[in-house]
Batch of 4 targets.
Target 1
Amino acid sequence: MDPFVFFGGKGGVGKTTVASAYALQCSRAGVRTLVVSTDPAHSTSDVFEQEFGDEPTPVEGYDGLSAMEIDPEAEVDAHLRETKRALDDHVSASMINAIDQQIELAHRTPGAYEAALFDRFIDVMEDADDYDRVVFDTAPTGGTLRLLSLPDTLDGWIERLIEKRTRSIDLFEKAAIGDREARRKAETDPIIARLQERKERFEFAERTLRDTAAFYLVLTPDELSIRETRRTVEDLAGYDLPVAGLVVNRLTPQPDDDERGQGGQFLRQRCATERDRLETIRTLDPSVVATLRTRPGEIKGDLLDEMAEELAIESVPEASR
Ligand SMILES: Nc1ncnc2c1ncn2[C@@H]1O[C@H](COP(=O)(O)OP(=O)(O)O)[C@@H](O)[C@H]1O
Ligand SMILES: [Mg+2]
């Protein structure tokens, strides 16, 4: 089993709930686990009835379980500040205003949100030494995955920038220090160094996702959710990242045969619909690793424990067996 586990899926299908239940299951099996939530609306704070912030914090009452919550809006702001600061050091005062405006604009696109979030994911993955398993309640899709091709793009840029810098180094100096030295000087240019650093960071992310991550998709027995799941499976496959399994959430409990009232009839019809949908889901390539019933209330406390027990996802890492 892999140290990084992602639960993807459409909004509201139960990613945070399932990720929390899975994290709980891991910690109960003696695996030091961190659950990372990214959803400001309903998140691990609600599930565990404890406030979590930007840094990992032990979950009270649960041994070996920590949680953190990343606020994507705050990440975009931090990213914006950091980008400006990094540029301000290298650009003349007269250009700063114009550049600042461009950067502000760039950070107001939806892609910026995903990029900032993914950047924070990389931080967490780099810093995960204290845990045997890190569980994310969202999986990178479409726009975020495209960031994985960033190293190739940056490679081209860096190469061209180095060439330009080498050429633009004063001819006299070049004559004095030679071609090779001019190239070395260009390579130590702070902007190029920063691009290089970004490149290595995303290379690390790609390697980590490919070699030490597992992706699960959570879905409900609804057509929209099934369609979205198909798309995400394809998105991930496009980047050579296979989906390890599907978790079908919110299945309706079957009523007793003698329940003849309106409620009983409704439940029987609903169960029949869900059986069809489940059949469709079972034809998809990643196999179904768990099916979870709809519970009568919010999933926390004992209900979370129940759910963790129903999640038949392997939770003990290979190494410790
Ligand atoms: N099996 C279930 N039974 C009952 N309620 C559920 C179940 N799974 C999720 N929920 C509820 O549905 C809502 C959305 O779940 P959540 O895990 O926050 O979804 P997501 O993270 O995918 O947006 C929450 O209020 C959660 O308690
Ligand atoms: Mg969520």
Note: The mean pLDDT is 86.
Target 2
Amino acid sequence: MIFYKPGDHKEAGFKHDPFKAFISPRPIGWIGSMDGQGRTNLAPYSFFNAMSSNPPVVVFGSGSQPDGSKKDSQRNVEETGEFTVNIVAHALKDEMNETSAALAHGEDEMQHAGLEGAPSNLIKPLRVAKAPISMECEYLQTVEIECWAKPQRNFVIFGRVIGIHVSEEVIVDGIAKAEKWQPVSRLGYFDYATVTETFEMFRPKTAPGPT
Ligand SMILES: Cc1cc2nc3c(=O)[nH]c(=O)nc-3n(C[C@H](O)[C@H](O)[C@H](O)COP(=O)(O)O)c2cc1C
């Protein structure tokens, strides 16, 4: 067994920091936002997850630009208080990757990736029209986490889901079936995985059914 402290991965024999490879697969939150001037922004975040379901709360973790300034998604969400989370189906993986391009503030990655936006019902930011699932979110709060690579900064952005769009095509008999949209997740390095197969397992001493 190898033991190392964060930061000492090279001494432990790793070519690159393997930390993100260990926390995998990570779902990808494809964050749609708008700045105060109504300009659309879209970017993938794999430091992303649901933190509670009642009410549904999601988080995404944002690093900063090399000079410590905030990335556009965080800037917009904090400025306008709204964002969409779009789920990346396997069929959208290349477009998702394209939207991670570092475009200037105010430039639209949705358009850049050849994607169509669709209006949200309750908020201004667009959702990705072809995403199998999109969530409309209101901003709750930001927590800053100490960054060891100063002047860069790390943040976690919290949002409450207030509306959900789901394609009828991914619902089978009242159940949303992941195999239908085949969610793309991030592993370590430049590796990704797609869910193509699932299995069921029930918790001991609890009623069967999703929790
Ligand atoms: C699959 C994938 C996952 C990513 N996850 C993150 C992440 O969790 N946090 C982060 O700061 N950047 C992440 N990035 C990089 C951002 O997408 C990239 O910096 C993007 O330009 C940010 O866009 P924005 O400034 O419009 O928000 C990821 C990129 C890809 C391709």
Note: The chain has one domain: 19-194.
Target 3
Amino acid sequence: MATRSSTTARKASLLKPVMFCDFDGTITQVDVTDEILTQLANPSWREIEQEWACGSIGSRECLERQLALVDASAEELDSLIDAIPVDPSFSRFMQWIEKSNLPFYVVSDGFDYVVRSVLKRAGVNGQLRNGAHLFASSLAVEGRRVKVSFPHTANGCAHGCATCKAEIMRKLGHGRKPIIFAGDGLSDRHAVEEADIVFAKRQLLVHCRKQGIACRSFDTFADIQASLAEMLGELSPVRRTPRADQKKRAGSTLIR
Ligand SMILES: [Mg+2]
Ligand SMILES: [Zn+2]
């Protein structure tokens, strides 16, 4: 007869989960692109921000023009990135992700150069190719200039996304379930529509609640890990006390 734990394990083995995760404000505690612009760009980047905020340009054009205003060496950029605070439990979460074999992708309007650096700091080894292991805008340093490009805009994207998270999730999530997403901001509002399980904080949490989108609130990756471990049957089987065993046995004979 199947015990409860083997039933859970069997159920979990039928799942083919995949997880997508926002970067700025979710993995990092601040928006790194904003930090780069504030510290290393000509202040006129704020005027471009206004054009974007009032909807006259999309985020792709906005980032392209703003990053052209950066005047910094690779060393200056690197030391800014190294000082960016990261969720304190992200590193442990990534160890758990690797151990669980849960496919995990960062999807971000921000830049691969930054994402790679932060993931490496969190102890993620191996290749971090933009388009395979992470999906983000692309940035290369050339002298004191940065060159940007947007390899993951989508043809059919009506949102003007720099990186179309919804499109990436549709593609990579095909045939997988549940599709898990974690994020914090309004740039995630199209992504959550493609997800079965949503972890949200800050503006994304407000948005989900307003729109009646089911979500779990979180503060740190420790919260996400605890929820997922339970959900995906990764927790060690529940240790039954002898008393519970007795009750169960007694139940099968005494209770009609
Ligand atoms: Mg964000
Ligand atoms: Zn889009």
Note: Residues 235-256 have pLDDT under 50 and may be disordered.
Target 4
Amino acid sequence: MRMKDRIRQLKAEKGAIILAHFYQEPDVQDVADFIGDSLDLSRKASETDAQIIVFCGVNFMAETAKILSPEKKVLLPVYNSSCPMAMMINKRRLLDYKAKNPDRKIICYVNSYAEVKALSDVCVTSSNAEKIITHFQHEKMLYIPDKNLGMYLKDRYDLDIDIWPGYCRVHNNLKVEDVVIARNKHPHAQVLIHPEAPLDVLKQADYVGSTRGILNYAQQSSHQAFVIGTESGMLYPLQKACPGKSFHILKEPMSCVNMKKTRLTDVLRALEEEQYEIHVEEGIRKQAKKALDLMLELS
Ligand code: SF4
């Protein structure tokens, strides 16, 4: 039996659901029940009736699913698929900051671990960060851990906000000259960039938004060609959603090694052996859930 068919059969037998991030390999996206960005996947994880969630992404995403759905078995197919940005902040450093700045609201990007979310007031994703930040705009804030999304928000709104110095290596690597080169190469294309890129690069874009935002923009636009400034896995769902249009990556390579660790064989093994199960300590989970629930309520 073909591996994809075996995965689909096992999934049905076990009543499992496969969730996959847009950055996953095309083969993995093909066996998923639902593909999306962090906000889409958080919502889906909290709404599904399935008792087993196989989460194809990096570990903070599977952890988020477990926080929202503690009664379900959440499986991460590759044990060590982690996000370097999420590791740029930890509980000890955040507690230290909070002790010195007790009046600041902690606005936490979902690209973070449960113990950090548990110390935060609200979570955001790149889809809803603008909406949520305006809710707190008259308060003093700390934005963690992505400096680029933080700088983008600070530039757009008049905020009293401290910004943590974390970043995504894939997006932080983009330069203004990359946009200039891409525009010369594809003069009729629109440039769509994810807000994890540096602010000077974002100012060169025709559109700045999350992966879901980029997908919606490309679908609704009358333009036929686009330069995409985010992880290269995004080209596959874009091409599927917009078959007549052309998409070019802003810079080669724009590939997240951790997102690309998950293979079909890992998904199959996850279902066969029900591994690797995600656990979150209950006290931390409850606190982290408050920040995620507020995000879902405000978005
Ligand atoms: S693309 Fe960047 S933010 Fe996303 S998982 Fe990879 S390193 Fe983390």
Note: The pocket of iron/sulfur cluster is lined by residues 23, 58, 83-85, 111, 168-170, 231, 256, 258-259 (CB under 6 Å).
